């Protein structure tokens, strides 16, 4: 199918997602096509029966592995998250367990506490203000369509993609989030990722490879980029270069939900501003932990455990399951396995 026809069909699908203006969220395919669905409800395997998603939305997620919901998170909440992030950057609040990250191009000698020096905060489960994102009814009503009623918030991030230094380190390589997760089944895990401002290709929007959630978990490692790579920015080593790509142009409050096997990444920020988004990975409380030793995930296990033990002290030696149990929080229903 030609690109204009694919883009036109995607616009029609996005028109079902809630806001009157069809142009407010534009997903631009740069190659290939967006799959259309032609199956019966009993064939759904990536979504659960619910009264929230329309049939078209459900089919779209089943075929493509992601779904954009327009204008989902109110401006007032976005502003509160932004204010709290700025307080964290200034070290006015220091939530327990929070990890503050900076770009690989910023040396320790240059670092001073400020928004311009902080590229990401993660594990904000102990920050009541930021963690409100994970409990918003607007978010959870969609999450339940993928996880069921017993919902765990597993991993939290607020991303502050910086203007690129010229070394292209603000990029995030194409990857699958399941690479980082020692719990299964993957079909009961979903990410909610909300734009905190207008996001497009200029400031490094998300790029997704539709339909790749139907494949298996691929080996990941650090890409061999000349300018350097940020810590734990693992990328897929052997993805198909000719896969269709969709760049998600989003407005403030727009939220994309996507499967943990969906291949995705983001480009460099070519602007002088900081591109912000807030996200949480949710999982069903029915999920269970697995041992990743001897698998393609063993490399990330060693790295995460090494960082955690350095953070907490070697005398408090932790394994990967310990780390994820520390992060996990019940946000709806009953806690079962996780």
Protein topology:
Layout: H1 3-14, E1 26-31, H2 55-64, E2 66-69, H3 75-89, E3 99-101, E4 120-122, H4 128-131, H5 137-147, E5 151-161, E6 172-175, E7 183-184, E8 189-195, E9 206-208, E10 220-221, E11 235-236, E12 245-249, E13 255-258, E14 264-266, E15 275-284, E16 288-289, H6 298-312, H7 320-327, E17 329-332
Antiparallel strand pairs: 1-12, 2-13, 3-4, 4-5, 5-15, 5-17, 6-14, 7-16, 8-13, 8-15, 9-12, 9-14, 10-11
How would you describe this structure to a colleague?
This protein is 22% helix and 22% strand. With 338 residues, the chain is of the alpha+beta class. It has one domain (47-332): Jelly Rolls. The N and C termini lie far apart (43 Å). Mean pLDDT is 83; it is low at 1-33.
Characteristic key phrases:
alpha+beta, Jelly Rolls, 8-stranded antiparallel β-sheet, 5-stranded antiparallel β-sheet, 7 helices, disordered N terminus, dioxygenase, ferrous iron binding, metal-binding, PhyH, Phytanoyl-CoA dioxygenase, peroxisomal
Q: Between the first and last Cα atoms, what is the distance in angstroms?
A: 43 Å
| Structure annotation, total helices | 7
Strand content: 15-25%
Shape: globular
What do we call the CATH topology? Answer: Jelly Rolls
Which class best fits the helix and strand makeup? alpha+beta
The value of Rg in angstroms is 19 Å
Tell me the CATH architecture: Sandwich
**Tally of individual domains:** 1
Average pLDDT value? 83
The CATH homologous superfamily name equals q2cbj1_9rhob like domain
Helix content: 10-25%
Total beta strand runs: 17
CATH class: Mainly Beta
- Unreliable residue runs: 1-33
Largest beta sheet, briefly?
8 strands, antiparallel
Summarize the helix and strand pattern as letters. Answer: HEHEHEEHHEEEEEEEEEEEEHHE
